[in-house]
Amino acid sequence: MLNWQRVCLIGAVALVMSGESLAQRNLPPMQIEQLTEHVYRYGGLTNGAFVVGSQGIAVIDGQICGSNGTQWLKEQLAERFDVPVTYTILSHDHEMHICGLEVFSDTARAIAHVNAKPHIVREGRRTVVPEITFDERMRIDLGGIEVEMIYLGPTHTDNLIQVHIPAEGVLIAVDFVREGKSLAMPELRDLNIDNSIRALGYLGRMENVDIVVPGHGGITQQESFLYVRDYLQTLKDRVLEQMVAGKDIEEILEIVTMEDFSDYGWFDLWIRANVITMWEQMYHYREPTDDEGCYECDFPIGFPVGEVDKYSGP
Ligand SMILES: [Zn+2]
Fold first, then answer.
1. CA of 160 to the centre of ligand 1 (A)
2. Per-residue pLDDT of the chain (314 residues; tens, 9 = 90+)
């Protein structure tokens, strides 16, 4: 090997190693926590879970790309249990939650909602392409313990599923709630508002749920669904009220402060983007009642500036 080639190779290896160690240094350490007889939570930056039956293991979600966390789990499972991983379950298509699940493909079949697959393929997610898809509900038996997957319609993405282990009262609810009373997400860009409000109400009252495992942060209880539902309903009502009153987004950011929800986790960091993205959702949701007024005032996105005749065009 020529000297310059050797230098380039060493440089490339050093770059890869420093990239990996940087990712690992900034991430919380990987941990496994047994929640019930058959159900475990695992993860570092994000929460995954696994369910161990007498015939096999189902792993719910991978870890963030670059963390090597999914491979770490594979090694831990091989050391701790003498049954294979027979299923991987993808909560939804967001890469942060599913990276690396292909490491289980030697023994496992991957399950996701039918809408997840096109996102995974189109966006080139670094994970397994689901082999089994379902629409409304699906149940698997791991030997002595059953896992039910439930789709409640479009909520956070059009393919988020809930994973329920009814016999042990565990619900894995990724990216829909956080621990205690908290905003769920930084912004509402890909949230179906009305169906989320319905689904959150359903999950808040669902039977056989003692422990809720969110995708981020500590475990929580069912009340968290109702806290998020109440917040979303109130934010929607208040933003709509101001839009109907003719306020623009800058005015709405001043008026809709949501101060009465300021005890929610992540409020200070996320409220501004939550209001803006709720406004954007409501912009698509409603048709303003106007007379011959300023059309581009009601529909500010994409129209030319200046007088526009609503019925005849510019
Ligand atoms: Zn997500």
1. 8
2. 444 444 334 333 333 333 444 455 578 899 999 999 999 999 999 999 999 999 999 999 999 999 999 999 999 999 999 999 999 999 999 999 999 999 999 999 999 999 999 999 999 999 999 999 999 999 999 999 999 999 999 999 999 999 999 999 999 999 999 999 999 999 999 899 999 999 999 999 999 999 999 999 999 999 999 999 999 999 999 999 999 998 989 999 999 999 999 999 999 999 999 999 999 999 989 888 765 556 566 566 665 555 555 555 54
Find the 155 Cα to ligand 1 centroid distance in Å.
10
Cα angle for residues 185, 165, 139 (degrees, 5° grid)? 100
Q: Is the pTM of this model over 0.70?
A: yes
Compute, in angstroms, the gap from residue 185 CA to the centroid of ligand 1. 9
Whole-angstrom Cα distance, residue 37 to residue 21? Answer: 35
303 CA to centre of ligand 1 in angstroms: 32
Distance between Cα 305 and ligand 1 center (Å): 36
Amino acid at 156: H
Tell me how far the alpha carbon of residue 232 lies from the centroid of ligand 1, in angstroms: 17
How many Å lie between the centroid of ligand 1 and the Cα of residue 101? 16
Tell me the C-alpha distance between 47 and 60, whole Å. 9
Strand partners, 112: 133
Ligand 1 center from residue 175 Cα (angstroms) = 5
178 within 8 A of 266, measured Cβ to Cβ = yes
Q: Which domains are assigned to the chain?
A: 28-175 (3.60.15.10)
